[in-house]
Design goal:
With 192 residues, this protein is of the alpha/beta class. It has one domain: Glutaredoxin. It contains five helices and seven strands. It has a five-stranded mixed β-sheet with strand order 5-4-3-6-7. A two-stranded antiparallel ribbon has the order 1-2. The N and C termini lie far apart (73 Å). The C terminus is likely disordered.
């Protein structure tokens, strides 16, 4: 019995250490992503979404799949954050990375409707957009663009089990990017 209690206590510590080690490795790898990275993808709504045309807004892009349970929880967080940032220069996008033969647009539309998603849903079936930001297999992958349209490193991999902590991480990144633009504007005005 004592051995089982010890194992139950130690297992979460080992998992936390492995996750933080993997996150540290992925953050280092994501620093190699060029600042000019971006994409143009078609959404389920038939429109094209081009990150280079979204200047002026902080853009949060999540790459995921319908079969990915952490991605589903992450979408709940993203939807809640979208509501929280309503009226502010922030856009949220979700990019589905699945093959269109396996997950047709019809299946994806059902998934979107079933989860009551209001954020634009884009397709990246070949994974070309995703490979700019991540070569690993761990999803979701979340990418942040500043208001000048530049990638803001590091790229975030995975979803924490606590949705509140995950939302706080996204909130901190978005607020920092919003604040950076305000600081730039203030500095620019002071030099005139």
């Amino acid at each position: 019995m004592r051995r089982i209690k010890g194992t139950i206590f130690v297992l979460p510590l080992i998992l936390a250490a492995l996750c933080s080690h993997a996150s540290a490795q992925q953050s280092v790898a994501s620093s190699d992503v060029p600042k000019e990275a971006g994409f143009r993808l078609k959404g389920l709504d038939g429109k094209f979404y081009d990150t280079s045309e979204m200047r002026g807004d902080v853009v949060v892009v999540s790459f995921g799949a319908t079969w990915c349970t952490p991605c589903t929880w992450e979408l709940v967080a993203i939807e809640e954050l979208k509501e929280e940032y309503e009226g502010k220069p922030v856009k949220f996008l979700w990019v589905n990375i699945e093959d269109t033969k396996r997950t047709t647009n019809g299946i994806l539309r059902y998934y979107v409707k079933d989860r009551r998603l209001t954020i634009p849903v884009l397709r990246d079936p070949g994974g070309e957009a995703l490979t700019q930001f991540s070569t690993g297999a761990r999803i979701p992958v979340v990418v942040f663009f500043d208001r000048d349209g530049h990638l803001s490193a590091p790229v975030h991999h995975g979803m924490s089990q606590d949705i509140a902590l995950y939302k706080q991480m996204v909130r901190e990144r978005v607020n920092a990017l919003l604040g950076a633009q305000t600081e730039k504007s203030g500095a620019h005005a002071a030099t005139k």
